[in-house]
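Wed. Picked up where I left off yesterday with Alanine racemase. The coffee machine is broken again, so keeping this brief.
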Amino acid sequence: MSRLKAAVASINTDALCHNIELLHKQAPNSRLLAVVKANGYGHGLIEVAKHAEGADAFGVARIEEALQLRAGGIVKPVLLLEGFYSASDLPILVANNIQTVVHCEEQLDALEQAELESPVVVWLKMDTGMHRLGVRPEHYDEYIQRLHNCKNVAHPLRYMSHFGCADELDNPITSQQIELFKNTTANCTGERSIAASSGILSRSDSHFEWVRPGIIMYGVSPFSDNDAQQLGYRPVMTLRSHLIAVNELKAGESVGYGANWTSERDTKIGVIAVGYGDGYPRMAPNGTPVLVNNRKVPLVGRVSMDMLTVDLGPDASDKVGDPSVLWGEALPVEEVARYVGTIGYELVTKLTSRVIPVYTKDSI
Ligand SMILES: *Cc1c(COP(=O)(O)O)cnc(C)c1O
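Structure written out below (tokens, as returned):
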């Protein structure tokens, strides 16, 4: 037997570069803040940032992620999308040239009271209707004034907001959010940003000076009803493993924990070395598609920690060691997500540290 590695995530950096180029074409007048939070949506924080040559800046959610980027040699601007969580983070932002969002009074107070060696680049976040983070429009001017007067804040200020429903193409809230953002910042000179993936793809009037692509950069659609490949983007991740057993199953016999699937015919069951311990969702139901030797076969029986089982069919000639793809170019993660009742975002982000990342390019 040749040496096989189970549960490998191949990350195609050519696909990543293709997607970034396409994003620049789609938002030709905007700069691109590439969102690499949550370990680059499961694709590897540093490796994604290193290969994302077309990105103008990076967005992360945690200060630890920003510091990892700096420690990994990334010198482009880095923005904390939710801002800092405590005043003691401020000197760290200054020392590492990290930009911050300000979305609440506590952050504003901390900035005003800090003694810093140099000013911080601040993006003032407006709540335009999502009601998660941000300053309400009626208080926006007051925040702008205080930030303008604060010696710790670099000028000009920058302005941002976030859509709540831009993945629903006919939801009127998106237009209302754009109008509100535009009107409230009409007299501001600084750069603006509101669009993440769904806004970039569906609303060119939301692009402003900066767009903030996350999921679409990884070749996964932000929309529930179409896959990124239909929009010209290429999946960056392929989750692979292989068969570690092929077993005969007789009609009437069941497979796996809880015996929740029973075969109606004599068949062959393939056991694949991937499970929820790798981040493959345990909730994946019977019938969820899996590729074995590039052929779509149904998942049957409950997903266990290290393995899952598929119905290869009575005539299968698949052998131990044969390759399997859980999602990727030939099986969009969006399709798997629909079976599981979640979104592609969650599947790619939830891979565990046991999965071996392998960085590849297009084979020629
Ligand atoms: C995560 C995030 C993004 C990227 O969102 P996608 O839908 O993955 O493109 C953009 N902006 C903010 C503030 C975020 O938190």
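Quick read: The first strand starts at residue 8 and ends at 12.
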